[in-house]
Amino acid sequence: MERNEIYVDRNLWDLQKGEESTVKNFNDSALACKLLTIGIVPKARIAMIRKSPFGGAVCIRLGGTYIAIRKSEALCILVD
């Protein structure tokens, strides 16, 4: 990394429709417990399927499963 580069963590909400990434970590420990129980775990491949028209939720693909989560939950999932 060069000296002038600024590294900013991306979250799931930053992904575009059809973009795929890997889960790195969570930035909210309270929501992390819920996300872990539904299968969103670090190092898992995750894909943005679509965002709702008014920005309230997103549909993601995790393995072969499609899951809808709230925007607040997507914001706390850090991705590569």
| E-strand count | 6
CATH fold name: SH3 type barrels
Rg from Cα: 13 Å
Q: What is the number of independent domains?
A: 1
Quickly name the level 1 CATH class: Mainly Beta
Structural class, from helix and strand content?
A: alpha+beta
What is the 3D form? globular
- Overall average pLDDT: 91
User: Helical element count?
Assistant: 2
Strand residue content: 35-45%
Give me some keywords for this one.
six-stranded antiparallel beta sheet; 2 helices; 80 residues; SH3 type barrels; 18% helix; alpha+beta
Notes on the structure:
- With 80 residues, the chain is an alpha+beta fold.
- It has one domain: Ferrous iron transport protein A (FeoA) (SH3 type barrels), CATH 2.30.30.
- The chain is 18% helix and 39% strand.
- The protein is built from two helices and six strands, in the order ββαβββαβ.
- Strand 3 and strand 4 form a beta hairpin.
- The longest helix has 9 residues, at 29-37.
- The chain is globular and about 40 Å long.
- The mean pLDDT is 91.
Write the layout of secondary structure elements.
Layout: E1 10-11, E2 20-26, H1 29-37, E3 45-51, E4 57-62, E5 65-70, H2 71-75, E6 77-79
Antiparallel strand pairs: 1-6, 2-3, 2-6, 3-4, 4-5
Offer a concise description of the structure.
It contains two helices and six strands. It has helices at residues 29-37, 71-75, and strands spanning 10-11, 20-26, 45-51, 57-62, 65-70, 77-79.
